[in-house]
Amino acid sequence: MIRAAVAGASGYAGGEILRLLLAHPQFEVGAVTAASSAGERLGAVHPHLVPLADRVLKGTDVQTLSGHDVVFLALPHGHSAALAAQLPDSVVVIDCGADFRLESESAWTTFYDTAYAGSWPYGLPELPVAAGSVQRERLAGARRIAVPGCYPTGISLALAPGFAAGLLEPDDVVVVAASGTSGAGKSLKPHLLGSEVMGSMSPYGVGGGHRHTPEIEQNLGRAAGEPVTVSFTPTLAPMPRGILAT
């Protein structure tokens, strides 16, 4: 069995990771950690994870995460880098945050407010790459993997094949996407209240201001073999989860 720990287990991403691990015959769930929810039963924050309901969430530190074959980091951006640096190279670390997705330091500093930590192999094996290679080959044997962002996953899988085939223009890409409220995480925010969200659609980060824009351009540029410019506008939709990108 492969023993896996999940840091940030109380959030939506952490809960999904645990759901998938429970259904996998080769994985065993080890430590589950959180920040503000540390000390609570996992069943109190994820009642649907019945087999793990009595597990107690521990604080997130290297000592708790050590001794596992795989560590999933489902943490806010800027929190994964310091923790990952302390984990041994023998451990497979899969970061579900943004810390290691971007290859360009300038792109990172433009869109994020923490220090650039470098880049890891990008965890989207289906992504076509120019010159005939495939992303799956780059991931073989990787011990550090950066999980793609939500918008970049859907948009890249839809458009990258067209760029790889030379069918799309790299300077004329406009994307509008609608996302469910869970994409903003579990923290209480007034604009995510049901009374605010129901019956309305609200754009944000209009025309390329969203921090996922450089990741989308990175993926499409890799497929095209040249720089790609994207005008991307995300929209908050009255639904709990999912993305519709056009």
Describe the structure concisely.
The chain has helices at residues 12-22, 42-45, 62-65, 80-85, 105-111, 135-139, 150-164, 194-197, 213-224; strands at 2-7, 27-34, 58-59, 70-73, 92-95, 144-146, 173-179, 202-203, 230-236, 243-245.
Q: How much of the residues is beta strand, in percent? A: 15-25%
Give me the Rg, rounded. Answer: 19 Å
Strands, total number: 10
Quote the average pLDDT: 94
**How many domains in all?**
2
CATH names the topology of the largest domain as: Rossmann fold
* The top level CATH class name of the largest domain: Alpha Beta
* Biggest beta sheet attributes: 6 strands, parallel
Q: How much helix is in the residues? A: 25-40%
- Secondary structure tally, helices: 9
Pattern of helices and strands: EHEHEHEHEHHEHEHEHEE
The unreliable regions are none
Order of adjacent strands in the largest pleated sheet: 3-2-1-4-5-6
CATH architecture of the largest domain: 3-Layer(aba) Sandwich
Structural class category: alpha/beta
Span between termini = 41 Å
What's the name of the CATH homologous superfamily of the largest domain? NAD(P)-binding Rossmann-like Domain
Q: Sum up the overall morphology in one term.
A: globular
List keywords for this structure.
10 strands; 2 domains; 6-stranded parallel β-sheet; 4-stranded mixed β-sheet; 246 residues; Dihydrodipicolinate Reductase, domain 2; Rossmann fold; globular; 28% helix; alpha/beta
Walk me through this protein's architecture.
- This protein has a six-stranded parallel beta sheet. Strands 8-9-7-10 form a four-stranded mixed beta sheet, covered by helices on one side.
- α7 runs parallel beside α9.
- The chain has two domains: 2-148, 3-Layer(aba) Sandwich (Rossmann fold); 152-245, 2-Layer Sandwich (Dihydrodipicolinate Reductase, domain 2), CATH 3.30.360.10.
- 28% of the residues lie in helices and 19% in strands.
- The chain is an alpha/beta fold.
- It is globular.
